[in-house]
Amino acid sequence: MTEQDDLFVLKNGNPETFKQVMDFPWAEPVLILTGEHTNLIRHFAQTHNATYLTTLDVKIRPKSLYIFENVDAFFKQNEQCAADVFSMPMASESEKQFFSFLEHLKSVHSFLLLTATTPPKQWAVFLDDLRSRFKTMPVIS
Asked: Can you tell me the distance from the alpha carbon of 93 to that of 48, in angstroms, rounded to the nearest whole number?
């Protein structure tokens, strides 16, 4: 990536968001980026040699950087349960898996950029530990 690439992303996006995302490593192991930031995400991934995740069934390498896009879609299936007035919303296996994934990520000192179209408070997350974890994560729009 060149300085010209940085300028392109800056020109077509929010300079403050650019600075917060690109100022890596972050103080926290997970950063949540909401909204439409395709160029910034691509630029960040190339600049920092990040690995895109499409599943949580991966071996996390110590001191590595990962990107999980559209995390709100990952939890979308939970909305179906919440909409059913005859069933009590409860944590899904995917939520438990996600929580374990975050715990492991932290234990090996790796980093994760989560992208979503909506902020975490709008995600259908029923596992209390995971919901409280999302509340403590930095969110950038």
From this structure: 31
Could you tell me which residues are beta bridge partners of residue 138? none
123, 34 in Cβ contact below 8 A? Answer: no
Contact 94, 73 (CB under 8 A): no
Q: Which two tokens stand for residue 65?
A: 């950087």
What is the C-alpha separation between 79 and 59, in angstroms, rounded? Answer: 29
Query: Phi-psi category of 19—alpha, beta or left, where left has phi over 0 and alpha has psi -120 to 50?
Result: alpha
> Rounded to an integer, what distance in angstroms lies between the CA atom of residue 135 and that of residue 28?
13
What does the DSSP assignment read for 80-126?
Answer: HHHH-TTS-----HHHHHHHHHHHHHHHTT-EEEEEESS-GGGS---
How does pLDDT run across 10-56, given as a tens digit for each residue? 666 788 888 899 999 999 999 999 998 888 899 899 999 999 998 88
Entry pTM:
0.87
